[in-house]
Amino acid sequence: MYGLGSIVPRFLNFLLFPLHTRVFNPEDYGVISYLYVFVAFLNIVYTFGMETAYFRFATREGSDPKRVFNIAQTTVVTLSLTLSGLFIIFANPIASSLSIAGKEHYIIWLAIIMAIDGIVALPFARLRLEKKPLKFAFARIVNVLILIGLNIYFFIIADWLVQGEISFDIKRLTDAASQESRYGIEYVFLANLIANGFYILFFIKILASWRPKIDKEIFTAMFKYAYPVMLTGLAGMTNEMFSRWTLEWWLPENFYDEKSSMYAIGVFSAAYKYAVIMSLAIQAFRFAAEPFFFSNAKDKDSPELFARVNHFFVIVTSFILLAVTINIDLLKFLVGGEAYYEGLVTVPILLAGYLFLGVYYNFSVWFKLTDKTYYGTAITVGGAIITIVLNFILIPIWGYVGSSWASLACYFSMAAACYLIGQKHYAIPYNILGGLGYILFAVILIVISNQFSFDNTWVAFGFHSSILIIFLGTAYAQERKNLTNQ
Length: 486
Fold this sequence. Notes:
Number of strands: 0
Number of domains: 2
Structural class: mainly alpha
Shape: globular
Helix content: over 70%
Largest sheet: none
Radius of gyration: 24 Å
């Protein structure tokens, strides 16, 4: 249920992608993506790792969970209101520095959105601590449904109302979503703000019961525990989002036929959406795998078990890499307008990057079980350094294609470092050659598939399906013995 509360909203939010790329040109879509990169980073600062600290200190023997919640919530609310207040006060210079002068209301609305996100972060954590997954999932899903509904209203239905006519014909709906809307990108932020307002109503009882509390001893201990969590989060977000910043900074002028850097960010961000398919699969796996790893840690055969889990994980994610890549000629129609198609060349690279990120999550079990989580921080920071350096080197040469290779290099390096260090502290007999073999097999099939082109969609679909069947048949023949032994 907690997984539904995180995965389903992300999938539903993915449904906005075809709408936005139809009503906005790449440059406008780039502005949206660029600003939300800042939001992603700042949300980590707003909560300051206090969610994890709340879990840790509220579950200690002899602790008062209500008192711990009040202290943590006081910290987060104070920080959120202070930061958002500063953003609102300095909205004009901030907008100018971000090349959106005259659009100060973007900054103001995003500041309020982040304040609400911060204020409700601990109430969401409290639902998890109190084992209320239904409420957790309900709030997350309803928020995204409101967001989707408002986007459809602003960018489709409102246009009909202005024109004095409305139709619920499917073709009319599709046609309307393929035309540039009379409403600007600020309505994306407004929809987000209204949807977040639902959180305040949903948590009104918890927020009303909260009493500001300051306890120097507990706060100091929580702060020392929380700030490394925040730093790790920022490093991880650098690996995830930093390329969209650096395209604005390091992309040479006129690199893409006199198109702006925001145009490049818009095209690259659209391509990144396809990688969400792999990201969702990995996130779903993590929700199941992490408690599985901990519950089986004391079993004497756990190393072999963890190795098998990772092996089959690589097979499944290699299949996803293959399936998405060879069908990109069909999936590209999710994107509105051929202007976005040029960025699809990065999709296989981004998918492979997320595959190795998933492998890293599997390899990371060793430092979680040995309470050496500082290794995770060091590896993540190392990945962030690789991301920054390679973006600096590759963007002037290859543009956003360079950014995608930087992402793959980062996650591959993190997985490799985690494996090599982990084998010294908690040896697990991973089938490295077998896993790399499946990844290489998927890549070879992609290369073979790309040698053929079909005008008929059904013929293309049949050919691609046969490629997938070859992969699955080979994997079954190879793993049949292992499957029957489980």
